[in-house]
UniProtKB/TrEMBL annotation:
<feature type="domain" description="Lipoyl-binding">
    <location>
        <begin position="2"/>
        <end position="77"/>
    </location>
</feature>
<dbReference type="Pfam" id="PF00364">
    <property type="entry name" value="Biotin_lipoyl"/>
</dbReference>
<dbReference type="InterPro" id="IPR011053">
    <property type="entry name" value="Single_hybrid_motif"/>
</dbReference>
<protein>
    <submittedName>
        <fullName>Dihydrolipoyllysine-residue acetyltransferase component of pyruvate dehydrogenase complex</fullName>
        <ecNumber>2.3.1.12</ecNumber>
    </submittedName>
</protein>
<keyword id="KW-0808">Transferase</keyword>
<dbReference type="InterPro" id="IPR000089">
    <property type="entry name" value="Biotin_lipoyl"/>
</dbReference>
<keyword id="KW-0670">Pyruvate</keyword>
<dbReference type="GO" id="GO:0004742">
    <property type="term" value="F:dihydrolipoyllysine-residue acetyltransferase activity"/>
</dbReference>
<dbReference type="InterPro" id="IPR050743">
    <property type="entry name" value="2-oxoacid_DH_E2_comp"/>
</dbReference>
<keyword id="KW-0012">Acyltransferase</keyword>
């Protein structure tokens, strides 16, 4: 099953975030709640955790790219 990883909203005024560092690469296995990517938002660094266990099959937002809240930033294919 395909699970989309969305950029969450950490604060009421947050409308976008910048991808700082991907902690996993395409093709790597991830476990639910495992740190997946660091994001800078509102001058604070936050970590997005994997929403499911599976394989990271797509990264849709490159490091340094700014994306809107709720945008799809990656895809995990579950077992």
């Amino acid at each position: 099953m395909r699970v989309e990883v969305l950029l969450p909203q950490w604060g009421m005024g947050m409308s976008e975030g910048t991808i700082s560092t991907w902690l996993k690469k395409v093709g790597e296995r991830v476990v639910e709640d495992e740190p997946l990517v660091d994001v800078e938002a509102e001058k604070v660094e936050e970590t997005v955790e994997a929403p499911a266990t599976g394989t990271l099959t797509e990264i849709l937002a490159a490091e340094g790219e700014t994306v809107d809240v709720r945008a799809v930033i990656a895809v995990i294919e579950t077992d």
